[in-house]
Amino acid sequence: MYLEKTVVLESTENKALTEILDDYYLAYLSRQLSLLGRREVHNGRAHFGIFGDGKELTQIAYARNFRKGDWRSGYYRDQTFMLYLGLLQPEEFFAMIYGDTDLNFNPSTGGRNFNNHFSTRNIDENGQIKDLMTTYNSASDISPTAGQIPRLLGLAQASKLVREHPELKEKLNNNVNGNEVAFGSIGDASTSEGMFFETINAAAIMQVPLAIAVYDDGYGISVPKKLQTTKESISEVLKGFKKEKNTNGLEIYTCKGWDYEDLVKTFEKSIAECREKQVPALIHVQEVTQPLGHSTSGSHERYKSKERLVWEKEFDCISQFKKWILETGKADEAQLEEIEKRATKRARQARDTAWKHYTESYSAETESLAGIVSQLANKNIKSVDHSDEFNAVKNKLFPTRRALFSFAKRLKFELHGIDGLTAEKEDLKNWLGKFEARTKVMYNRQLHREGVDSTLNVEAVPVQIDKDAPMVNGHDILAENFHKLFAKYPNLVTFGEDTGFMGDVNQGMKGMQEAFGEHRVSDTGIRETTIIGQGVGLALRGFRPIAEIQYLDYLMYGLPTLSDDLASMQYRTMGKQAAPMIIRTRGHQLQGMWHAGSPMQMILGAMRGIFLCVPRNMTQAAGMYNSLLEGNDPALVIEPLKGYNVKEQLPSNLGEYKVAMGVPEVLNEGSDVTLVTYAWNTHHAVKAAQLLKELKNISVEVIDVQTLMPFDVNHRIVESIKKTNKVIFVDEDVPGGASAYMLQKVIDEQKAFNYLDTAPVTLPAAEHRPAYGIDGEYFTKPTVERIYDAIYNMMRETNVKKYPPLD
Ligand SMILES: Cc1ncc(C[n+]2csc(CCOP(=O)(O)OP(=O)(O)O)c2C)c(N)n1
Ligand SMILES: [Mg+2]
Question: Domain Transketolase-like pyrimidine-binding, which positions (predicted)?
Fold first, then answer.
């Protein structure tokens, strides 16, 4: 616990007393931090702040029960919880508000995330997830309300899996012991979110050690409980979930946020039972206050009634705690005053240290820029003397990199037209280069794993097909390959709708549950958000989960968790946290508005940070799974729905061969037009290429990108265009969707524009969803004939004589 202990006393009674006074110190310190933090924003030394005032006692009582190996997944009010465990230092509290980018000083966010968004490391620089039983652990916080809840399911499930299968312990490098609890926290209003209810239901069914404390301060910003929660009470609402004798369900507890004894008792009991029996617990902490209002962005006097404000003052948990200490004679006024003084001093010191650290981090760069500005001033040329503007930037109360960089860039623009000043121009150029490189590290790196565990490092291993290889259904290749993977990786688990008993709706997991057990291959309810959450939590604790979403069109139900949590995890923690999970789904084509969609643009836009694999057949899909399990990047694999019952040759090195990420494959060599595509359209493309060759002697180079994220890392496509001078992008997303993404990558990033002799073409699906049936699909999506038309017309553009109109 982070504290300067009051006095160390011997007897049990005295120990309890010391603990109480320590708690008072911590609650008071935390409140001072909130007060000072708010002031920093209002003084203009920080942009924004959100604090945990009013919730101090609740969190102390909650954190008391946290053990090494446990996991927290909470929200922005949890500063006292984190202080109690020593996971937050007062200095760091301020460093977060200022946005200090020094990861040593601001380890939770490195300046990337809001203040009070906490995290601990779960992965080391070598990509090893380990030693989690020796530390207090916290998933990294996100701002979307209730977004922290789905992952609790996986964090808790990991304990259950290991308790029931102790042999897993060793396979997880002893990162999970089986007795750990996943501690969640959420505001009362955020329980209105669907993902909260979905998680409660799943946890109550699965019976996992998950505790959720609801901090009920009666408001979600300004909107009161009566508009948020039925009967104005989440514990009342959830009564139907309550565990009865011989049923599954949830234990529900209530207590009051200003009553220290009640809080301590309730949390002790609820967490002990949750830990021992692995029954989820909901602790509804009522009558909580929010003395400083929601955040620094507003004032609660605007929407709280006078009576409420009076009540909040009286029932402030620290005032009530003090009253109780005095009334029960545990300490006198003078003792408490001494504690208060000490806490206030500590908070101020922390603020000053953090501010100094933040501002000094600018010193070297500011000074070297000052040198350039004064060199210019010494030239005695009025137009190049920018000392005054520079001093204004330098003396800003709140220094920012933006102000410095913007000044330096503009200075560069100004000097550009002026003759001479060679040395100064060179110095400025160097300054800008160095500054930008440093800023990039601070803000633009770590979207994906960058060390030895980057999946980009996994090299391709060719698939081996023996001469007499049998032709089997696509799903058999997947199933046999998964069989090898489950044997090879003892921490591999999979789950989803119909994944377990049935082996998924398309039989890719056929026989897996029988072979590897229900704990590793399991069914879930229909609940895409928490299927993803389950994966995130399990991956954080060292499992390798494959979370199955039954069809690509239903990925949308899991999208918030994929986008807000999984995709941003690596980035928002600067690589300190990774959840290397695979999302397995299937889609693109198979007749039906919600069974044939290909919403790639949605994924490309919302899921940067997650690899996107788009195999054209099951041999390729299996090779992708083989690669992904060797790296630590999360990935989505979309198996082509039409391919399960198509025959493929059975490889002889299943589980071994690998597809390199971001490396396209040329399926058909050609010299007239480059056709770039992926997934099922590769088949249409190859057929169209054959037909064009046969009928018109047009030679098409067909390129399968294999993965959309990463995309053609070695710029293979532009090499093809250098030869053909024409490019067409074919896919079955909406116009302006993934085809436009590929176009941007190739034309803009790979600079293919210089090599084109006709306009680049995109051939996507129609704007609407794919209509039902063979015809509905045919007249919505790209086809062999449409590809033929498009390519012929491109040829015609450069040689009208040779290629007369098709009609
Ligand atoms: C999905 C989403 N919607 C809206 C918001 C904006 N927002 C931030 S906090 C908040 C209120 C949350 O209230 P509550 O859950 O009671 O927590 P409290 O702040 O009162 O502790 C809202 C609406 C958000 N962050 N995320
Ligand atoms: Mg609230």
Answer: 472-646
